[in-house]
Design goal:
293 residues; 30% helix; globular; 10 strands; alpha+beta; six-stranded antiparallel sheet
Length: 293
């Protein structure tokens, strides 16, 4: 009887130990699975931060690379200049490429700032050579070397007639992004058209640009509309002789102009420009510039 009780007690104890070990095993497995799932769903914070930093670094590097590739890149542009007037031929053009350190060609509307002598020579006589001399040279601040030049019509070698066009090629870059052009409306006293320091480099999409330019008055000569003071073809008589003789020494052309650059008021029919050569008046804009990259 004692032996039976002893055996029964040992069997009961063994079953209890086996059950306990089984519970401990399954509990450990469950805990391990839970830890593994937490690691999968929640990676260590330092790994996530490193990943974001890497992406941000790559993005910054790409941005810097893109900007550096644009910097100092030269763009070659064609400026097609269309004379939209009825009877106002345009003289040869003054052209230059520059930056903001260059002296501007003029300041429009400032009554305290008269036109330069070189601009007056263009606006009164159609001569761009004085402006080239003013802006060309190694010591001229802000002007791209060798960019200041004269341009005459690429079809005729002379003026750009009403309804005709001419094309000027220029090169701009990050250092010299601005372009200036100017020409005289020759059937006037001192009217000129101009694109004054326009940024043609910062057009990142390289889309075609269209600019319309008004006639400007240099303010240097009275608008008397007398052929003695006007160099254009409207002042050529029936024999082909010009009536504009030695204007610089002609006292008829002396006198005070307005004294500053402003929008021209057109031909008022007070002299003989219209009477001899026909209708030289216009409505702005005088010129359209189409810029192709």
């Amino acid at each position: 009887m004692c032996t039976y009780k002893y055996l029964y007690t040992k069997m009961k104890l063994a079953l209890l130990i086996t059950t306990s070990l089984t519970l401990i095993f399954y509990s450990s497995v469950a805990h391990a699975n839970e830890e593994m799932m937490m690691k999968v769903n929640n990676p260590p914070p330092h790994r996530r931060i490193a990943s974001k930093a890497t992406k941000r670094s790559k993005s910054v590097d790409r941005s810097k690379s893109s900007k550096n590739s644009m910097k100092n890149k030269t763009k070659t542009l064609n400026l097609r200049i269309i004379n939209q007037t009825y009877q106002q031929p345009l003289s040869g053009f003054f052209v230059m490429v520059h930056n903001n350190n260059a002296t501007p060609l003029y300041v429009r509307g400032d009554r305290n700032t008269p036109a330069s002598d070189a601009l007056i020579q263009l606006a009164e006589n159609g001569n761009p050579g004085h402006l080239v001399a003013m802006y060309d040279g190694v010591d001229v601040e802000g002007v791209k070397p060798s960019s200041a030049m004269m341009h005459f019509n690429d079809h005729t070698g002379g003026p750009t007639l009403p309804g005709a066009s001419t094309t000027i090629e220029v090169e701009v870059d990050d250092m010299y992004p601005l372009v200036t052009i100017a020409a005289m409306a020759v059937n006037t006293n001192d009217c000129f058209v101009s694109m004054n320091g326009v940024d043609l480099y910062s057009n990142d999409d390289n889309e075609v640009l269209v600019l319309d330019l008004p006639g400007l008055d240099a303010g240097s000569e009275p608008n008397n509309e007398l052929c003695a003071c006007v160099p254009g073809p409207n002042c050529v008589d029936e024999n082909g002789d010009t009536l504009n003789v030695d204007e610089e020494n002609n006292t008829v052309c002396d006198g005070d102009g307005e004294g500053f650059v402003h929008v021209h008021r057109g031909i008022q029919q007070i002299g003989d420009v219209d009477r001899i050569g026909g209708d030289a008046d216009w409505r702005n804009p005088m010129v359209r510039v189409v810029i192709n990259y």
